[in-house]
């Protein structure tokens, strides 16, 4: 029987940390996301209470030097959904009792907000493109109308010239 994956080890390989275990950079976004998803699923499967689940996840070490990698992490497949589902079942009171647990909540909230902001920007972009297409359609209709009018004028001119030069 194969041994289960070492999600904590995967997490350690996916990041660059300083001597104080502060995450300076995420080196491998897919591996990091897979490790976080695995850790969240492990916490949900083996923790007896939401507070235990929060304590387990808090023990991992979620101190980031900055949030520069968060928008890229938010786009990793499954991470947003897993963090959202995990936050729904965690004991939020546990975050006030422990800085380590609070750091997990901050991380998860930042990823979720980054993904939500991305969705909002995509929605705004689609609306802008749709509005631009409407304007282009109006421009095309106006151009077609002017071309019809110009064609009518040329036909009238042609008729007048043909009558005059008979």
Question: What does this entry look like structurally?
Answer:
This protein has seven helices and two strands. The protein has helices spanning 7-14, 29-46, 50-58, 70-74, 79-89, 93-97, 99-164, and strands spanning 15-17, 23-26. Strands 1-2 form a two-stranded antiparallel sheet. The mean pLDDT is 82.
Task: Kindly summarize this structure in a few lines.
This protein is mainly alpha-helical and 166 residues long. It contains seven helices and two strands; from the N terminus they run αββαααααα.
> What is the strand arrangement across the widest sheet?
1-2
- The radius of gyration computed from the alpha-carbon positions, rounded to a whole number of angstroms, is 30 Å
- Could you give the count of β-strands? 2
- Average pLDDT figure: 82
Order of helices and strands: HEEHHHHHH
Biggest sheet character: 2 strands, antiparallel
Poorly predicted runs are none
Percent of sequence in beta strands: under 5%
Task: Pick out its properties.
single chain; 166 residues; mainly alpha; two-stranded antiparallel ribbon; 4% strand
Q: How do the strands and helices of this protein lay out in sequence?
A:
Elements (H helix, E strand, L loop, with lengths): L6 H8 E3 L5 E4 L2 H18 L3 H9 L11 H5 L4 H11 L3 H5 L1 H66 L2
Antiparallel strand pairs: 1-2
Helix pairs in contact: 1-2, 2-3, 2-5, 3-7, 5-7
């Amino acid at each position: 029987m194969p041994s289960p994956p070492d999600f904590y080890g995967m997490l350690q390989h996916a990041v660059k940390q300083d001597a104080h275990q502060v995450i300076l950079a995420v080196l491998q976004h897919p591996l990091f996301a897979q490790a976080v998803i695995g850790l969240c699923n492990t916490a949900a499967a083996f923790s007896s209470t939401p507070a235990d689940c929060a304590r387990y996840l808090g023990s991992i070490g979620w101190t980031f030097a900055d949030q520069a990698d968060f928008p890229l992490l938010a786009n990793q497949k499954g991470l947003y959904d897993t963090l959202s589902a995990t936050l729904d079942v965690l004991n939020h009171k546990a975050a006030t009792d422990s800085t380590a647990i609070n750091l997990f909540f901050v991380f998860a909230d930042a990823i979720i907000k980054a993904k939500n902001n991305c969705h909002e920007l995509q929605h705004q972009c689609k609306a802008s493109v749709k509005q631009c297409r409407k304007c282009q359609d109006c421009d095309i209709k106006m151009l077609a109308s002017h071309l019809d009018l110009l064609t009518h004028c040329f036909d009238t001119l042609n008729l007048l010239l043909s009558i005059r030069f008979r």
